[in-house]
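SAMPLE LOG
Freezer: B-3
Tube label: C17
Construct: single chain, 259 aa
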Amino acid sequence: MSAHVLILGGTTEARRLAADLAARPGIRVTTSLAGRVTRPGALPGEVRVGGFGGPEGLAGWLREHRVDALVDATHPFAETITAHAARAARATGVPAVVLRRPGWRPGPGDRWYDVASLAEAAEALPGLGSRVFLSTGRLGLAAFASLTGLRFLVRSVEPPEPPLPPDTRVILARGPFTVPDETELLRAHRIDVLVTKDSGGRATAAKLTAARELGLPVIVVRRPPLPDGVRAVPDVAGVLDRLGLGTDAANGTSGGPDV
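STRUCTURE (predicted):
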Protein backbone atom coordinates (compact mmCIF):
# COMPACT_ATOMS: atom_id res chain seq x y z
CA MET A 1 0.00 0.00 0.00
CA SER A 2 1.41 3.42 -0.95
CA ALA A 3 2.06 6.24 1.49
CA HIS A 4 0.62 9.65 0.62
CA VAL A 5 2.78 12.74 1.25
CA LEU A 6 1.31 16.23 0.85
CA ILE A 7 3.84 19.00 0.14
CA LEU A 8 2.81 22.59 0.63
CA GLY A 9 5.08 23.93 -2.05
CA GLY A 10 6.13 26.61 -4.45
CA THR A 11 9.79 26.82 -3.43
CA THR A 12 12.82 25.31 -5.11
CA GLU A 13 13.19 22.91 -2.20
CA ALA A 14 9.59 21.78 -2.56
CA ARG A 15 10.22 20.88 -6.20
CA ARG A 16 13.35 18.94 -5.31
CA LEU A 17 11.50 17.05 -2.60
CA ALA A 18 8.58 16.24 -4.91
CA ALA A 19 10.98 14.90 -7.54
CA ASP A 20 12.75 12.70 -5.00
CA LEU A 21 9.55 11.31 -3.51
CA ALA A 22 7.81 10.76 -6.85
CA ALA A 23 10.72 8.61 -8.00
CA ARG A 24 10.37 6.25 -5.03
CA PRO A 25 8.16 3.17 -5.27
CA GLY A 26 5.30 3.10 -2.80
CA ILE A 27 5.17 6.89 -2.38
CA ARG A 28 2.31 9.00 -3.67
CA VAL A 29 3.16 12.70 -3.63
CA THR A 30 0.83 15.66 -4.00
CA THR A 31 2.15 19.23 -4.18
CA SER A 32 -0.21 22.04 -3.26
CA LEU A 33 0.41 25.48 -4.78
CA ALA A 34 -1.20 28.72 -3.63
CA GLY A 35 -1.99 29.75 -7.20
CA ARG A 36 -0.33 33.17 -7.06
CA VAL A 37 1.77 32.41 -10.14
CA THR A 38 -0.35 31.79 -13.22
CA ARG A 39 2.16 29.58 -15.02
CA PRO A 40 4.14 27.54 -12.51
CA GLY A 41 6.75 25.11 -13.74
CA ALA A 42 5.92 21.44 -14.20
CA LEU A 43 5.99 19.28 -11.08
CA PRO A 44 6.29 15.51 -10.65
CA GLY A 45 3.46 13.68 -8.96
CA GLU A 46 0.01 15.16 -8.42
CA VAL A 47 -0.62 18.90 -8.17
CA ARG A 48 -3.46 20.89 -6.63
CA VAL A 49 -3.84 24.67 -6.79
CA GLY A 50 -5.60 27.01 -4.41
CA GLY A 51 -6.28 27.41 -0.71
CA PHE A 52 -7.82 24.88 1.65
CA GLY A 53 -10.14 27.17 3.58
CA GLY A 54 -8.10 27.65 6.72
CA PRO A 55 -6.73 25.03 9.13
CA GLU A 56 -10.09 23.25 9.35
CA GLY A 57 -10.24 22.93 5.58
CA LEU A 58 -6.70 21.60 5.43
CA ALA A 59 -7.44 19.12 8.20
CA GLY A 60 -10.46 17.91 6.24
CA TRP A 61 -8.34 17.51 3.11
CA LEU A 62 -5.75 15.49 5.03
CA ARG A 63 -8.44 13.12 6.27
CA GLU A 64 -10.34 12.86 2.98
CA HIS A 65 -7.23 12.12 0.94
CA ARG A 66 -5.65 9.88 3.55
CA VAL A 67 -2.43 11.82 3.87
CA ASP A 68 0.28 10.01 5.81
CA ALA A 69 2.75 12.90 6.14
CA LEU A 70 2.60 16.67 5.63
CA VAL A 71 5.61 18.73 4.54
CA ASP A 72 5.38 22.51 4.77
CA ALA A 73 7.91 23.66 2.17
CA THR A 74 6.37 27.08 1.60
CA HIS A 75 8.25 30.38 1.48
CA PRO A 76 9.81 31.42 4.82
CA PHE A 77 7.45 34.42 4.91
CA ALA A 78 4.26 32.41 4.28
CA GLU A 79 3.46 32.52 7.98
CA THR A 80 -0.30 32.10 7.64
CA ILE A 81 -0.19 28.75 5.83
CA THR A 82 2.59 27.58 8.16
CA ALA A 83 0.37 28.31 11.16
CA HIS A 84 -2.57 26.60 9.47
CA ALA A 85 -0.48 23.54 8.64
CA ALA A 86 0.69 23.21 12.24
CA ARG A 87 -2.89 23.40 13.52
CA ALA A 88 -4.19 20.93 10.92
CA ALA A 89 -1.42 18.44 11.71
CA ARG A 90 -2.20 18.62 15.42
CA ALA A 91 -5.93 18.21 14.79
CA THR A 92 -5.51 15.13 12.60
CA GLY A 93 -2.43 13.51 14.10
CA VAL A 94 -0.72 13.57 10.70
CA PRO A 95 3.08 13.77 11.13
CA ALA A 96 4.39 17.10 9.86
CA VAL A 97 7.76 18.48 8.84
CA VAL A 98 8.67 22.10 8.07
CA LEU A 99 11.33 22.57 5.38
CA ARG A 100 13.07 25.96 5.56
CA ARG A 101 16.31 26.75 3.79
CA PRO A 102 18.77 28.56 6.07
CA GLY A 103 18.58 32.33 6.14
CA TRP A 104 21.29 34.64 4.87
CA ARG A 105 24.06 35.93 7.12
CA PRO A 106 26.06 39.12 6.58
CA GLY A 107 29.73 38.79 5.72
CA PRO A 108 32.72 41.13 5.68
CA GLY A 109 31.91 44.30 3.78
CA ASP A 110 28.13 43.96 4.07
CA ARG A 111 26.14 47.00 5.23
CA TRP A 112 22.97 45.32 6.44
CA TYR A 113 20.16 46.89 8.42
CA ASP A 114 17.97 44.31 10.14
CA VAL A 115 14.26 45.12 10.49
CA ALA A 116 11.27 43.13 11.69
CA SER A 117 8.75 44.04 8.99
CA LEU A 118 8.12 45.76 5.69
CA ALA A 119 6.67 48.69 7.62
CA GLU A 120 9.97 49.09 9.50
CA ALA A 121 11.85 48.85 6.21
CA ALA A 122 9.75 51.70 4.82
CA GLU A 123 10.51 53.81 7.90
CA ALA A 124 14.26 53.22 7.54
CA LEU A 125 14.48 53.95 3.81
CA PRO A 126 14.52 57.77 3.65
CA GLY A 127 17.73 57.94 5.68
CA LEU A 128 19.61 55.42 3.58
CA GLY A 129 19.00 56.29 -0.07
CA SER A 130 16.71 57.72 -2.71
CA ARG A 131 16.91 55.13 -5.52
CA VAL A 132 15.57 51.88 -4.15
CA PHE A 133 15.69 48.36 -5.54
CA LEU A 134 12.65 46.90 -3.80
CA SER A 135 13.14 43.14 -3.91
CA THR A 136 10.49 42.04 -1.44
CA GLY A 137 7.96 40.32 -3.70
CA ARG A 138 4.98 41.77 -5.49
CA LEU A 139 2.50 41.31 -2.64
CA GLY A 140 4.08 43.57 -0.02
CA LEU A 141 4.49 46.80 -1.93
CA ALA A 142 1.63 48.57 -0.16
CA ALA A 143 3.92 49.13 2.83
CA PHE A 144 5.92 51.56 0.68
CA ALA A 145 3.01 53.21 -1.16
CA SER A 146 3.03 56.37 0.94
CA LEU A 147 6.70 57.15 0.35
CA THR A 148 7.30 60.18 -1.86
CA GLY A 149 10.59 61.63 -3.02
CA LEU A 150 12.05 58.16 -3.60
CA ARG A 151 12.42 56.25 -6.86
CA PHE A 152 11.64 52.56 -6.73
CA LEU A 153 12.66 49.70 -8.98
CA VAL A 154 10.53 46.56 -8.55
CA ARG A 155 11.24 43.23 -10.19
CA SER A 156 8.73 40.40 -10.15
CA VAL A 157 7.62 37.40 -12.19
CA GLU A 158 4.13 38.84 -12.66
CA PRO A 159 2.80 42.41 -12.52
CA PRO A 160 2.34 43.66 -8.96
CA GLU A 161 -1.04 44.84 -7.80
CA PRO A 162 -1.62 48.37 -6.47
CA PRO A 163 -1.09 50.29 -4.33
CA LEU A 164 2.49 51.00 -5.37
CA PRO A 165 4.83 53.85 -4.46
CA PRO A 166 4.17 56.91 -6.66
CA ASP A 167 7.49 56.71 -8.53
CA THR A 168 7.89 53.03 -9.39
CA ARG A 169 9.36 51.23 -12.37
CA VAL A 170 8.46 47.53 -12.72
CA ILE A 171 10.62 44.96 -14.46
CA LEU A 172 9.09 41.56 -15.19
CA ALA A 173 11.72 38.83 -15.04
CA ARG A 174 12.22 35.35 -13.61
CA GLY A 175 15.49 34.32 -11.94
CA PRO A 176 17.91 33.00 -11.05
CA PHE A 177 20.18 35.98 -11.69
CA THR A 178 23.97 36.07 -11.63
CA VAL A 179 26.17 38.54 -9.79
CA PRO A 180 27.07 40.28 -13.09
CA ASP A 181 23.33 40.49 -13.90
CA GLU A 182 22.56 42.13 -10.58
CA THR A 183 25.57 44.42 -10.68
CA GLU A 184 24.55 45.71 -14.09
CA LEU A 185 20.96 46.21 -12.91
CA LEU A 186 22.03 48.21 -9.86
CA ARG A 187 24.40 50.34 -11.88
CA ALA A 188 22.02 50.94 -14.79
CA HIS A 189 19.33 52.25 -12.46
CA ARG A 190 21.76 54.05 -10.15
CA ILE A 191 20.39 52.17 -7.15
CA ASP A 192 21.75 53.37 -3.81
CA VAL A 193 19.83 51.08 -1.40
CA LEU A 194 18.43 47.55 -1.61
CA VAL A 195 15.44 46.22 0.34
CA THR A 196 14.90 42.48 0.55
CA LYS A 197 13.42 39.74 2.71
CA ASP A 198 15.60 37.08 4.27
CA SER A 199 14.42 34.38 1.88
CA GLY A 200 17.70 32.48 2.03
CA GLY A 201 19.05 30.20 -0.69
CA ARG A 202 21.38 30.74 -3.60
CA ALA A 203 18.80 31.53 -6.27
CA THR A 204 18.27 35.10 -5.10
CA ALA A 205 21.52 35.77 -3.22
CA ALA A 206 23.42 37.33 -6.14
CA LYS A 207 21.86 40.74 -5.48
CA LEU A 208 23.41 40.72 -2.00
CA THR A 209 26.86 40.04 -3.42
CA ALA A 210 26.38 42.78 -6.00
CA ALA A 211 25.29 45.23 -3.29
CA ARG A 212 28.35 44.36 -1.20
CA GLU A 213 30.72 44.87 -4.11
CA LEU A 214 29.11 48.24 -4.86
CA GLY A 215 29.12 49.29 -1.21
CA LEU A 216 25.33 49.68 -1.03
CA PRO A 217 23.30 49.49 2.18
CA VAL A 218 20.81 46.61 2.37
CA ILE A 219 17.67 46.58 4.48
CA VAL A 220 16.91 42.96 5.35
CA VAL A 221 13.48 42.01 6.68
CA ARG A 222 13.95 39.12 9.06
CA ARG A 223 11.74 36.05 8.95
CA PRO A 224 8.62 35.68 11.06
CA PRO A 225 9.00 33.13 13.85
CA LEU A 226 7.65 29.62 13.47
CA PRO A 227 4.57 28.64 15.48
CA ASP A 228 5.18 27.51 19.06
CA GLY A 229 6.54 23.99 19.22
CA VAL A 230 7.38 23.86 15.50
CA ARG A 231 10.95 23.30 14.35
CA ALA A 232 12.30 23.31 10.82
CA VAL A 233 14.80 21.17 8.95
CA PRO A 234 17.14 23.01 6.54
CA ASP A 235 17.13 20.80 3.46
CA VAL A 236 15.54 17.94 1.53
CA ALA A 237 17.85 15.39 3.16
CA GLY A 238 16.55 16.46 6.57
CA VAL A 239 12.95 15.94 5.45
CA LEU A 240 13.75 12.50 4.06
CA ASP A 241 15.38 11.53 7.35
CA ARG A 242 12.32 12.71 9.28
CA LEU A 243 10.09 10.72 6.94
CA GLY A 244 12.21 7.61 7.38
CA LEU A 245 13.38 7.82 3.77
CA GLY A 246 17.01 8.73 4.27
CA THR A 247 20.12 6.84 3.17
CA ASP A 248 19.09 3.56 4.73
CA ALA A 249 15.67 3.79 3.11
CA ALA A 250 17.29 4.37 -0.27
CA ASN A 251 19.10 1.06 0.24
CA GLY A 252 15.79 -0.68 0.81
CA THR A 253 15.89 -0.93 4.62
CA SER A 254 12.96 1.34 5.37
CA GLY A 255 9.33 1.47 4.37
CA GLY A 256 7.03 4.43 3.99
CA PRO A 257 7.00 7.65 5.99
CA ASP A 258 7.21 7.23 9.76
CA VAL A 259 7.79 10.75 11.04
